[in-house]
Amino acid sequence: MSKLSIRETVQHINTHDFVLHCNMPLGYVPGLPILKIIHDELCLQVPFLKYKVTGQPDQTLVYPIRYTVTMTWPEKKMIGFSNLSYDPAFAQVDFSKAIGFFRHDAVKHMKKAEYRAMRDELLDQYDKVAAALLEGAEYTQEDEAHMRRLMQIIMEPSLYPLYQALDQDFYGKYLAE
Predict the structure, then answer these.
(1) Residue 97 lies in a domain
(2) What is the domain extent for residue 96?
(3) What pLDDT sits at residue 3?
(4) Coil vs helix vs strand at 121
């Protein structure tokens, strides 16, 4: 299998024809993806949310995940788009109201380059999980603990309930206390 990068895929997903034709409003950016098995295939579900800069340090508004795009991995065949405002599981979510702030406490001390490097490291960890699931590559408890630790540092805590609603298994493995 050729070396594919989940990090690069997520970083460039906004320019994919499928995503461009989903009619998401401008301003939505990809969040941390969710790995899931759908019909015995590894899939990547990429949530989209928006941020609003307020001009105050550490007070950038974080809005709820509103859209998701799902693709098979590693083929990157797009298999789904969801507008969560039409999903009954998200009926109580007010997508027009901010749910938190960036930068949250776990990353306030980081410089931009440090944060970006840690986020990239986290996204690179997804490749290790994918290789373990697809190729039987080694993936240790230490690897899983490392990914969990990175995820809990990088992800805005206000997004946890949305990730839980999107995928209980992924949430339980990487975000639940």
Answers:
(1) yes
(2) 6-174
(3) 67
(4) helix
State the pLDDT at residue 4: 81
**1 within domain boundaries:** no
Share of residues in the chain with pLDDT > 90 (%): 95
The CA distance from 84 to 89, in Å, is 8
The answer to whether residue 13 sits within a structural domain is yes
Structurally, how many domains does the chain consist of? 1
Kindly tell me the burial class for residue 48, based on how many C-beta atoms sit within 10 Å of its own C-beta (0-12, 13-18, 19 or more).
buried
Q: Is the peptide bond before 103 cis (omega within 30 degrees of 0)?
A: yes
- Give, in order, the Cα–Cα distances in Å from 103 to each of 55, 83, 100: 13, 26, 9
CA trace torsion 7, 9, 13, 17 (10° rounding) = 180
- CA torsion sign for 18, 154, 176, 95 is negative
- Residue 51 structure tokens: 């941020």
Residues sharing a CB contact under 8 Å with residue 77, sequence separation 6 or more, in sequence order? 71
β-strands 67-72, 41-52 pairing: antiparallel
